[in-house]
Amino acid sequence: MTTTGEPGHPFTPATPQPRPAPDHAEGLRPGSAAGEQDRSVTAVGTHPHSAPGLGEPSRLGAGAADGGAAPDSGAASERRVPGAARRGAVDPVKALLHRHRDLCERAVDPLEIAAGLEAHGVTDRTAARFRHRDVFSLAEEMYARVSRAPEAPPAPETTDVPRMAVDRVVLSLLPGALCAAAVTGLRLTEGRTRLAVAVAGVLGVALGVRALLRRGPLGTLVHTPAGTSTPGTRAWTYWLIAYAVLGDGLLGAAVTGGPDGLPDGTATGPWPLGIAPALALALGCAPAAWAAHLFAVRARRRLAASRGLEEFAASVRPLLLAAFGLFLGALAALLAVCGAVLHQPAEPAPALTLGALLLLARLLTIHGFTRAPAVALAAAATVEAVAQASVFAARLPGCGPFATPVDTLVAAWGPGCVPALACGTAALALLVHATRALSRASAHARAEGQP
């Protein structure tokens, strides 16, 4: 039984404790002496308002008054370390890293992360909020901080422009070789044999172009995910190519009241065929593949050397225009050679505009932009179809004015002006769109199997 005045008696007056200095609680640090920590915690617990923010001060003080150890003294001292509670808030990259963790773990180099961030709308101005001068610097930090498997391949080094593989060179030459063989067969045969040769030649060229578009620089397997192709693009492309062979001859004959018969496979029949433009376009698959390969590799090298999105865009636009101009020059030379060999003077404008439209549409498609090419191809094909239909519709009673615009154009510039205007306008619109879309870093993200 305890008496008044003994320790532990409820009526024993508590020994007054000295009020701690204002900076005494702030001076607690992990590693200080145990007695000093006990005295400091007891003092703080006795006067809870002297050190706000420690949490449950009265319980700490009671534990110290009963002579027991203060179990939360170490935690309280750690919580009082200046800046410890705010350490997570000064790392703005951590939240961004967590949001794009899948992108960072799959990336094989910082360039892929930079392209992915740019595709999600992160610009150099946004990177400044994360205390980085540009997106590339931010991507390098994210690539360095993310954890990845040990077997992940190392970042590829920037090398010189690789040459196209032999099989891809053969594929790029295959459509032109098959078309040349078909044209030779048409010139050496007659009657039903010529018709069979024409059908076989069309099928052979179609299969050759299909093989070229499935592999190599013009292929989409490594760029475009499954299910992203726009329906109808292939059909509009077939229409434009068929019009290049059959359309001008049909329109010219229709304006003068024809045609008087079916095409016989020659350029002088009742329904003339555009053999020289078709052969030049087939042979143009090789320079188109080379231009696409050159643009893709050079753009990736510029991506590795650039230190900002604006700098990369400014360096890629001239590269795109140079590749586009080289292809047009090669196609113009092929048109001249084919016309001279076949003794068929061909108008260069329809074939050049069609080749430009097809190349730009393919460049956008293989880099993941499929909607704009589909719209441009559909618009050009629709204009050609409407022009042909208006001429034949004018033969109906009371529908003569329908053919007035087409008749005026054909009388002034020939039947080739219709595809030249249709394909040229669509190609110009695609060129403006391509200079913006293909100057983004996300359009040149490296993927396995790319040239």
- What is the residue-averaged pLDDT? 74
Q: Counting H and I runs of at least 4 residues, what is the number of helices?
A: 18
Distance between the termini: 93 Å
Strand tally is: 0
Question: Share of helix among residues?
Answer: 55-70%
Poorly predicted runs are 1-18, 20-89, 149-161, 221-228, 447-451
| Gross geometry | elongated
Q: Any idea what the radius of gyration is?
A: 38 Å
Q: What is the element string, with H for helices and E for strands?
A: HHHHHHHHHHHHHHHHHH
Q: How much beta, percentage-wise?
A: under 5%
Largest sheet: none
Structural class: mainly alpha
Outline the fold blueprint:
Layout lengths: L33 H13 L10 H9 L7 H7 L12 H8 L1 H6 L3 H10 L4 H6 L5 H11 L20 H23 L2 H24 L18 H23 L19 H9 L1 H21 L3 H34 L5 H19 L4 H23 L10 H10 L3 H21 L14
Helix pairs in contact: 1-2, 6-8, 9-10, 9-12, 9-13, 11-15, 11-16, 12-14, 12-15, 13-14, 14-15, 15-16, 15-18, 16-18
